[in-house]
Amino acid sequence: MKVGVPTEIKKDEYRVALTPSGVRELTAAGHEVIVQQGAGEGSAISDADYVAQGAQIVPDADAVFAGADLVVKVKEPQAVEIAKLREGQTLFTYLHLAPDPEQTQGLVASGATCVAYETVEDRLGRLPLLAPMSEIAGKIATQAGAFMLEKPLGGRGLLLGGVPGVAAGRVMVIGGGVVGQNAASIALGMGAEVYIFDMSIDRLRELEHTLNHQASTCYATTLDIEQRLPEVDLVIGAVLVRGQKAPHVVTREQLALMKPGAVLVDVSIDQGGCFETSRPTTHTNPTYEVDGITHYCVANMPGAVPITATYALTNATMPYVIKLASLGVHEALRADPGFMLGLNVAAGKVTYAPVARDQGLEYTDPAEALSLVPTAA
Questions:
Q1: Which of 62, 87, 106, 350 sits most deeply, having the most CB atoms within 10 A of its CB?
Q2: Considering 270, 295, 336, 358, which one is annotated as catalytic?
Q3: Which of 31, 69, 96, 358 is an active site residue?
Q4: Is residue 62 flagged as an active site residue?
Q5: Taking the CA of residue 27 as centre, how many other CA atoms within 13 Å lie in the half-sphere pointing to its CB?
Q6: 209 HSE (CA, 13 A, CB side)
Q7: Is 96 a catalytic residue?
Q8: What is the separation, in whole angstroms, between the first and last Cα of the chain?
Q9: What is the pLDDT of residues 194-251, one digit of tens each?
Q10: What is the pLDDT of residues 333-346, one digit of tens each?
């Protein structure tokens, strides 16, 4: 099979979907790999590094999309990339379709088979292709929030960890999953006072032990969140409802409860954002202010640390890429129910129920849609 790797074109995105190690594994298994010229530069990977492991370098994205049976990416395809997709081609990348009906419509119209990293599950029901980026995003969220609390950047002028004789800042983390756990861990490491909210008592018990009883674990009700908002300096939104738009856990009205210059960091922005006042931002222009509260809503936080993020991501995705290349999309997905859950669009059908529900579209069972996809010759 021909596997194609285009350069990521989303603003401020420096990751790449395949490393030289991945090329080596694929070529050793008898597959061809075509990589767009310069695709790895943002992650400190040269074209020569790819060539040394058997890849072919092509000049532009047109050549990648035209030549590849399987296109692997990092971020959701932009409009110009969707226009290059074709029937019979497989796309494997993060999609985050629920809050993005235009992308959904484009992928449906393309006829391509589209598998989303973020909805693939393992045998224990975990999200193995989302987890590494969630770990990084959680850590960046606290770092970014601490930075944005500085006065020259519009913040309160508070050092998150405090100093002897001056109290530390207070951090509220809403969502106790992988993002929330990592955000809380970094906040504790900085010396902050941390409150982590979740709606699962079992998960809160786990966090008590994981965080060595240093953070206050709190059951996430609207009232409890509202009562804590006036006390905190930094709020990190780490809410995930698998494959669905994120619910709003802080409303615009509730911003009035917060301290002027406090900071909101919305890690859920890929799924539409968990604060009512959130809108996507970029690393170039990461923040904006609403009612005196700084909002940091960068939609690709791990893209800021591409050397770390590229290798963390590809360590997780590589076994799945090899399955797709070696078995073909039909056999690879049918053999693994968790992998089948990654199928979001096939044969012009929406095959992930939460996306169909959020966008008011007809849902088609993924196995049924997959049966309509032509088998490669």
A1: 350
A2: 270
A3: 96
A4: no
A5: 18
A6: 5
A7: yes
A8: 11
A9: 999 999 999 999 999 999 999 999 999 999 999 999 999 999 999 998 888 999 999 9
A10: 999 999 999 999 99
Transcribe 169-205 into DSSP letters.
PEEEEE--SHHHHHHHHHHHHTT-EEEEEES-HHHHH
CA 149 to chain centroid: 24
Instruction: Please give the single-letter amino acid code of residue 135.
Output: E
Rounded (5°) CA angle 318-72-280 = 110
Amino acid residing at 31: H
pTM for this entry: 0.94
Give the model confidence (pLDDT) of 129-149 as tens digits.
Answer: 999 999 999 999 999 999 999
- C-alpha closest to that of 175 among 78, 271, 253, 105: 271
Residues paired with 34 in a beta bridge = 4, 56
CA–CA dist 333, 19 (Å, integer)? 23
Query: d(Cα 198, Cα 352) in Å, to the nearest integer?
Result: 25
Tokens found for residue 216: 């206050």
Residue type, 90: T
> Would residue 263 be called left, alpha or beta, if left means φ above 0 and alpha means ψ between -120 and 50 degrees?
beta
| Contact between residue 194 and residue 214 where contact means Cβ atoms under 8 Å apart | yes
Candidates 50, 26, 54; CA nearest to 40 is 50
Looking at the domain 131-304, which fold is it?
Rossmann fold (3.40.50)
Residues 187 and 146: their CA atoms lie apart, in Å, by 9
10 Å CB burial of residue 165 (0-12, 13-18, 19+) is exposed
Instruction: Give the pLDDT confidence score for residue 272 in this predicted structure.
Output: 95
- How far apart CA 98 and CA 116 sit, in angstroms, is 12
How far is it, in rounded angstroms, from Cα 8 to Cα 318?
18
Return the pLDDT at 39: 98
Please list the ranges in the chain whose pLDDT falls under 50. Answer: none
Retrieve residue 307's tokens.
Answer: 């050397």
At 259, list the tokens: 């301290």
In CATH, 2-127+306-371 is 3.40.50.720 = yes
Backbone angles phi, psi at 212, to 5 degrees: 55, 35
Tell me whether the CATH fold assigned to 2-127+306-371 matches the one assigned to 131-304: yes
Delimit the domains of the chain by residue range.
Answer: 2-127+306-371, 131-304
